[in-house]
Amino acid sequence: MLRQPLLMLSRSRHVQELVSTMPVSSGIVHSYVPGETTDAAVTASEELVAGGMWVTLDFLGEDTLDVEQAEATVAAYVELLGELAHRGLARRAEVSVKLSAVGQALPDSVAGGGHKIALENARTICRAARNAGTTVTLDMEDHTTTDSTLAILRELRKDFPETGAVLQAALHRTEADCRALAHEGSRVRLCKGAYLEPEEVAFQDRIDVDRSYVRCLKVLLAGQGYPMIATHDPRMIEIAGSLASRYGRERGTYEFQMLYGIRPLEQQRLAESGETMRVYLPYGTEWYGYLMRRLAERPANLSFFVKSLVSK
Ligand code: FDA
């Protein structure tokens, strides 16, 4: 019941300004976001890798309408990738990028438009990742960005075929998108979808999203690509394991992914059982939208968030 209002709030600049002076170190934020700086993020990655995990790092930020801010985000990724290489982590740690953080939402009137700016900025990050010896996955945002994001993915893959994509089972179109992307060399992260979407484009009931998730899993695991199974849902994890066996998938030809701080014991269990387990690790000061989406998935945590606010 709280999911919808929380997701609406996640887009509110006004509330964001009110609460985002809260430091990452405060209780609930820290449980989902380990730090603000490159150093904190790399140190947290080091700990995860030492515990047998793989990592994908997200420099927090989204929906920027400022060219300079988009460029600062690119610079942050370039610095991060240099540091991952320097500290010997690039084999096990890649980066996840939200195209709206690197300019996708900018209007057409600005320097060729948001799509073009985001493409060029993403290209710079892909180049830095290649130089560091790792990869980029493009996060997927709300449905209004899906076509642009997949078009940018196609462009990037001409030079950087290792670039990964995210597809959201909540959208009606996604099973078809999975078919289009289930080809050799294609890295696809399948998630349920974290955004508030209208019924014209998305399933509204959880059960329908889950059914779609399973159909998409079948397409990806039966295909030739590299599926990245991003879910904390015990049923989806079990079904993915059975489907992987059914389609003769060896371990290492697909991976599981979960968000930092969510079900860490299950992350550990999967890693210890020999699965590739990658943790999505967000860092930075722009945690507001990310945190609100996490609260929408788990409204039980709302009271902890309110307590953090009151005691700040
Ligand atoms: P579901 O929401 O049904 O949760 C299953 C169980 O997981 C819950 O019962 C609970 O135990 C636990 N859980 C889930 N969320 C929790 C939380 N916030 N706090 C504590 N426990 C929680 N989305 C998107 O739209 N675009 C993207 O690019 C990405 N990227 C992405 C990367 C990775 C690695 C992951 C794991 C997820 C994403 N997502 C995403 C988010 C995704 O779409 C989805 O919103 C969340 O993963 C929650 O869905 P589950 O599949 O976990 O199932």
TrEMBL record:
Its cofactor is FAD. GO terms for molecular function: nucleotide binding; proline dehydrogenase activity. Substrate binds at K98, R293, R294. Keywords: FAD, Flavoprotein, Nucleotide-binding, Oxidoreductase, Proline metabolism. GO terms for biological process: L-proline catabolic process to L-glutamate. It is an enzyme of class 1 (oxidoreductase). SUPFAM superfamilies: FAD-linked oxidoreductase (SSF51730). Binds 1 FAD per subunit. InterPro entries: FAD-linked_oxidoreductase-like, PRODH_bac_arc, Proline_DH_dom, Proline_oxidase. Residues 44-305 form the Proline dehydrogenase domain. It comes from the Bacteria. This is proline dehydrogenase. It comes from Nocardioides euryhalodurans.
